[in-house]
Design a protein that fits this description.
single chain, about 130 residues, four-stranded mixed beta sheet, two-stranded antiparallel sheet, 6 strands, about 25% helix, globular, binds calcium ion
Length: about 130
């Protein structure tokens, strides 16, 4: 399971240098990363896409769940549209504006911990 923000200013969605600092190295794009896991997990190239409910309108963010099919192990991407370098969940009570400025928007439509739990619960059903 990968959860990536489309507007992540530190770990770029499209890949490249991390945090605009060559010393931090570089990362594959999200597409390349998911292609790697698709092959490792033996999935077909068919995907299912589901736009999750936009429960929190003020977070300027939505989530699309992309699931690969016919895999030996569950393979899924939560694409956080408009999301920064943040874990989806409840907004923090203090300093949120400063953190928003540094890390970008936080999606509040889902709780990442619950999504991760559901992913691993489903994963145990695949054998
Ligand atoms: Ca939202």
């Amino acid at each position: 399971m990968v959860i990536n923000g489309r507007n992540d200013g530190l770990v770029p969605w499209d890949g490249g240098v991390v945090a605009d600092n060559e010393e931090r190295g570089s990362v594959l794009s999200t597409e390349e990363t998911m292609e790697f896991w698709r092959r490792v997990n033996g999935c077909s190239d068919q995907t299912g896409r589901q736009d999750l409910a936009n429960l929190e309108q003020d977070d300027e963010s939505t989530i699309t769940r992309v699931s690969w099919q016919a895999c030996n192990a569950a393979t899924e991407l939560l694409q956080v549209n408009g999301g920064g370098h943040r874990v989806p969940g409840d907004d923090i009570p203090f300093g949120s504006r400063l953190i928003d400025a540094l890390l970008g928007n936080q999606n509040e439509d889902v709780q990442a911990a619950e999504e991760i739990w559901k992913f691993f619960s489903r994963s145990t059903e695949i054998h």
